[in-house]
Amino acid sequence: MHTHFPKEGEVWMSSLGKNIGFEQNGSGGNFSRPILVVKKFNNHMFWCASLSTKQKKFDFYYNFTDPNGEKVSVILAQLKLVSVKRLKRKLYDISNNDLVKVKDELRGFLV
Questions:
Q1: Which residues form a coiled coil (predicted)?
Q2: Boundaries of domain holding 91
């Protein structure tokens, strides 16, 4: 198995596993889901937030347009610590401006 070394601001397809309650499940047997790398701690783990193609007007959604012109939302309330072993493939990078805004929104939740 190849180990990936993600960077903050990258969007990856990941295998987050089956979730419960209101957590966002992925699709398929591995429950694959796109995630945004929010904060890298080391080469083994990082904080991520799930992405959705359904844009909503809630405080805990950050809406943006990806490099392919698709409307996407970062689900800020679903910040999660993840191992790099869950990563499958890199999809794209978000703009530095969007990454700064995502982190600012998250700071607002944490203070």
A1: none
A2: 10-110
Q: How many whole angstroms separate alpha carbon 72 and alpha carbon 94? A: 11
Reported pTM: 0.86
- Per DSSP bridges, beta strands 61-65 and 45-52 are unpaired
Q: Give the CATH number for residue 59.
A: 2.30.30.110
Evaluate whether residue 90 is within a structural domain. yes
Count of the separate structural domains present in the chain: 1
CA distance 36 to 56: 17
| CB 95, CB 11: distance < 8 Å | no
What residues form DSSP beta bridges with 49?
A: 36, 79
Residues of the chain with pLDDT under 70: 1-2, 17-30
Give pLDDT, residue 4: 82
